C-alpha cells in the first residue's frame, strides 16, 4: 500500500470544527510537506478550488499550482498529485507550465484531473461551466491536447472545445506524469479507462470498493492499456484504544448548526451521479472519508487496510486533523516508517 495525504490548502478538513490549528499558509504547508517526506509518505494530493469548500467561501484557500511549484523545489521524493480542472486551464498553456513544474520536481509531478462540479465558482470567475456529459467530453479533448504537447515535437488539434496549430512544448516533462481521475458515471468511467493511468475513488467500505476496482480493471484491459492503479480517499483516526478513537470521531461529527459551506455540498450532489441521500453527519468530512472507518487502534487500522489491499487498492489518500500531529502518529503506529 502507498500512503498519500491531502495538502491542507483549505486550512483543515473538518466542517464542524472552525479552527483546526492548521492555517492555509505556505509556512504550514512547507513544514508539513518536508516532515511528511521524512515520515515516509509517498504522495500528496493538492486540491484545486479557488473558493474554500471546507471552511466557507470567504475563507483563505491556497492556489494549487503555484503551491505545487513551491513544494517541488523543497522536496526530493514525494509524488505531487495536483488537481486540475480543464475548464480553468487552457490545455496547451497548461502543458507548458506543468512540464516546467515536473522539471523542477525531477519527474515527480502527477495530475488529478477533475471535471468541475461547482457552477457558482465558475460563474464568479467568468468561466464556462458545462453540463455533466459535456464536462467529460471537454476533459477527453483536454487530455488529448496535453498528452500531444508532452509527446510530440509539434501538435495540431481541431476539436469541439480546443484547437492548436503546430504548438510546441519545450522542455517536455522529465517523465510523463501519471494521470489520476475519479468519477462514477458511465461517461466518466469510459473516459478514465481509455485515457488515464489511475482511478481514484471516494471513501467506501471494502464491499463497495472491490467491485469498482474489478469493473475498472476489466474496462482498462479492453482498451489494451497498462494495468490501472487504484486509490481511495479516507479520514483516519488512530488511538491507543478503540474508546479513545470513538470519542474523537464523536467530537468531529457532532453538528449543532449547518456549517458555512453546506449549500456548496448540496450543489455538488446535484451535479453528480452519486447517491443523493448522505447524512449531515457524514458532511463533517469531505469525500466520504468516514465510510472506510479507519478509526481505531493501530492493529484495527492495519487489518482494515490489509482488506483494501487484498481487494486491489494500492493507494490511500488520507485526511487527518490536526494534520501535522496526526500524520506523524499514523506514520509511527500504522505505517511503521517514522
From TrEMBL:
Presence of keyword Oxidoreductase: yes
CDD domains (UniProt xref): Alkanesulfonate_monoxygenase
Any Pfam family the entry gives: Bac_luciferase
InterPro entries: Luciferase-like_dom (IPR011251), Luciferase-like_sf (IPR036661), SsuD_RutA_monooxygenase (IPR050172)
Luciferase-like domain sequence ranges: 18-314
Keywords associated with the record: Flavoprotein, FMN, Monooxygenase, Oxidoreductase
Name assigned to this protein: LLM class flavin-dependent oxidoreductase
Amino acid at each position: 500500500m502507498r500512503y498519500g495525504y491531502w495538502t491542507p490548502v483549505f486550512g483543515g478538513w473538518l466542517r464542524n470544527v472552525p479552527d483546526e490549528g492548521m492555517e492555509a499558509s505556505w509556512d504550514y504547508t512547507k513544514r508539513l510537506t518536508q516532515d511528511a517526506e521524512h515520515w515516509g509518505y509517498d504522495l500528496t494530493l493538492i486540491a484545486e478550488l479557488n473558493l474554500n469548500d471546507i471552511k466557507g467561501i470567504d475563507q483563505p484557500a491556497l492556489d494549487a499550482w503555484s503551491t505545487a511549484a513551491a513544494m517541488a523545489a523543497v522536496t526530493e521524493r514525494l509524488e505531487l498529485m495536483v488537481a486540475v480542472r480543464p475548464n480553468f486551464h487552457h490545455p496547451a498553456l497548461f502543458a507548458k507550465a506543468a512540464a516546467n513544474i515536473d522539471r523542477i520536481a525531477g519527474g515527480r509531478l502527477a495530475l488529478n484531473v477533475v471535471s468541475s462540479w461547482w457552477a457558482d465558482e465558475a460563474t464568479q470567475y467568468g468561466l464556462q461551466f458545462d453540463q455533466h456529459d459535456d464536462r467529460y467530453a471537454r476533459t477527453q479533448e483536454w487530455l488529448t491536447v496535453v498528452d500531444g504537447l508532452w509527446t510530440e515535437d509539434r501538435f495540431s488539434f481541431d476539436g469541439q472545445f480546443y484547437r492548436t496549430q503546430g504548438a510546441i512544448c519545450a522542455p517536455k516533462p522529465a517523465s510523463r506524469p501519471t494521470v489520476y481521475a475519479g468519477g462514477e458515471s458511465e461517461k466518466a468511467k469510459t473516459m478514465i479507462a481509455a485515457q488515464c493511468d489511475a482511478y481514484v475513488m471516494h471513501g467506501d467500505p471494502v464491499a463497495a470498493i472491490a467491485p469498482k476496482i474489478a469493473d475498472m480493471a476489466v474496462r482498462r484491459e479492453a482498451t489494451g492499456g497498462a494495468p490501472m492503479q487504484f486509490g481511495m480517499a479516507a479520514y483516519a483516526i488512530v488511538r491507543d484504544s478503540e474508546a479513545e478513537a470513538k470519542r474523537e470521531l464523536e467530537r468531529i461529527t457532532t453538528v449543532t448548526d449547518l456549517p458555512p459551506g453546506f449549500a456548496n455540498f448540496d450543489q455538488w450532489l446535484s451535479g453528480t451521479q452519486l447517491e443523493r441521500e448522505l447524512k449531515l453527519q457524514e458532511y463533517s468530512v469531505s469525500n466520504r472519508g468516514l465510510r472506510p472507518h479507519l478509526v481505531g487502534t493501530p492493529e484495527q487500522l492495519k487489518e482494515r487496510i490489509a482488506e483494501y489491499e487484498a481487494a486491489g487498492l494500492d493507494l490511500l489518500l488520507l485526511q487527518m486533523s490536526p494534520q501535522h500531529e496526526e500524520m506523524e502518529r499514523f506514520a509511527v503506529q500504522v505505517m511503521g516508517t517514522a
